[in-house]
Design a protein that fits this description.
Chain lengths: ~280, ~325
Amino acid sequence: MNLLEAHRITFERGGQRVLENIDLALAEGQFLGIIGPNGAGKTSLLRILAGLEAPSGGQVLCAGEPLASMAAARRARHLGYHAQNPELHWSLRVSDILRLGRVPHQGALLRHDQADNAAIARAVAMTGLGPLLKRRGDSLSGGELARVHIARLLAGEHRVLLADEPIANLDPRFQIDVMNLLRQHAAQGGANVVVLHDLAIAARFCDALILMDQGRVHAAGTPAEVLTSTHLSTVFGVGGDYWQLSGIPAALDLREPLEAERRRARSAASRSASD
Amino acid sequence: MNGSARLGVYGALVLLCLVLFVAALCVGPVPLSPFDLPHLLYARDTEALGLIIYEIRLPRAVLATLVGASLGLSGAALQGLTRNPLAEPGIIGISGCAALCAVIAFYTGFAALNIWTLPAAGMLGALGAVAGLYLLAGSRARIVTLILAGVALNSLAGALTTLVLNLTPNPFAAYEIFFWLMGSLANRSFDHVWMVLPFVSLGGVLLLASGRGLDALSLGDDVALSLGVDLRRLRAYVIVGSALAVGSVVAVSGVIGFVGLVVPHILRPLVHHRPGALLGISALGGAALTLAADLGTRFALSNGELRLGVVTALIGAPFFMHLVVRNRSPR
């Protein structure tokens, strides 16, 4: 069963058609990238997939169940969401921000138990935030804070992560780190839908891409199928030299070792699951 | 914050409230010794001292506690909901509309019918404010729209209150309204306490239950929603809870400003800025500040008492200016 499916999603806002007939299916282990120019409807699609907004037509299925009729807490455990410009009001400590990631797992009494602590500790270890735990969120640099938001997302231990430009504020090293973390999440039985602007990063890390333009899917498939010079010049209006300059060909070449690594990770995961 | 530090903050505030409460029973034109209190309270003395305790000072101290706790709690909750440190029950029109209806009750003479009419009018005003907010902003409004609707409602209530004062033919009635608007806890009885208690309790439960949602809201509406928080219910809890708690206390005490603004500000660092953890201690802090301010009213003027609302404003406004100046300098 697919972890997340969208069937003929349309969405209108203020009488304007924002999305039209979008279909997608996300299988376990899959890393799906959504790319496209500004205003193509990427964020609207991600918000609908996360259940933050109801589509005007069509429906989203979450592990086979209609998202619209799912209880909020169950939906929240299943789907994690990272906003395009993550907000932080009040100067909360990093450790308190991470605890918020566990809200979907806590009952009415807000008991913070061993499982919560363990999940937070894992997220901290993965993101290397240990030294920052006692710092105030508003005293961090933009890049550090972006990592805190990623760690909050990971601490939620959601099955599917929906992230809107999670690497926008990061320097190259942390961009790679975050993409690797997301890939690791997919390899361990999860799946991701990530909106990306960096096409070379999309080429290198995603299994499948959806190229959106004016609310429609312009092209969908593997990175090599979608990131062609023709598609990019049609949708982004850039010349053929952009394709070379963007680093996409090199990134696509990098994928072969990546696939091999992923196969290894998957067989390791299935081994540990059968143990 | 770990559990023991939090308990420490709670313990200190409870102790402070107790000390101020005892002081509220002892201080006045007839000074009493705290050591005589157990005897006086237990014996239910019908002599003068017993009357002073049971008819005057005890209901007044209990009301100060309820009024302060309501204002502090709802200030903290509204600040969490709007994510705006300037929010307080006054800003979204609840206090203003409650005061307007109370003033209308004075003007029409209904207030003189019996002691229940005035508080009923106040609560009617507060609930009217909530209805007005939802009508103006819609139930799915963004927070900014909600604040703007509140500000608009507040200005309207202020204008209509002035209009009523303007139309009052009898200068004594205008005087009465004017003094009532300044806020006071003098000459209140246990009837007033029983009257506000159910509404304050219900409102308090709604407000305290919104802690987790307010915490999640620190990460923005979308992330809070994605964490499973029901934003519409959270908004309803905070706004209706504030209307019940604040509307009822405004009706018996008049308008008492700044408590809901200042108390969460002072206490926020003690709970590491977590909006949910701030709720309970703001209730205690509000009670302490109001008890202290009400004590302050008794020390002043030779010809009667200062008004409580005047004292809280005299404490609150300079404090607020201090906050503005401190925040002006780069962090």
